[in-house]
User: Fold this.
Amino acid sequence: MILPYYRAPGMLRIQLSNFGSYPSYVQEQFRLIIVDDGSSEAAADVIAESDSPPPLRLYRIKKDIPWNRGGARNLGAHVAETQWLLHLDIDHVLPPAQAIALVDMRVNPGCWYRFERFRVGAADETRRKDACDPAATFARIKPHGDSYLCPRRLYWKVGGYDEDYSGCLGGGSPFLAQLEAASEPQVLPVALHVYTRSVCPDASVSTLDRDTSEYSRRRKQKTFLRNTKARNPLRFEWEQQI
Assistant:
């Protein structure tokens, strides 16, 4: 389970508590990897506050590169030693009952998988596009591209996330398009709970620039140059902290 972290201490506390509530035999089937994306509110400080954090490994990117989630995910995939990679956004929580169901489920190593999702809390500015009542505090929403279960082999066959897009919002789309071209995704009957700011104020960081124009410019240029394959992952200094 790979969790990129950036200025979301409240959501990290929820994730740690949630993972710690898994039955021990379920915890043993996961390896919890947290990647601190150069956050000014360090993940290490949040973990240190916990009386009994679950077994985990923590890595930190030394420089705060804007919108470097792709790089953080590449680092998580690089250090992972398991056949399968479970990538989750920090506000996407896999509840205990759903984790048990996932462990008991048979999955095809030639496929990758998305999840059913339920929004927890009323809509905020990042969730107004959900096709459900904005005021509903628990509602089904469509699967999300950036939370998925994928064979590690397939992840790197595609090349991982393209770090040419680091610094702007939208850089995950080319990777996901190439992943879909390599293998059509399936949707698992396992549900993630997606937290909104009405439940946890840092479920998504409100001060980040969400303009996608720079991403569109870079993608257009890379397509024109036929430079669409991700190359040279991990273009930053990083360290293991736990």
Observations:
- Helices lie at 9-20, 24-27, 43-49, 69-79, 96-104, 152-158, 172-182, 213-224.
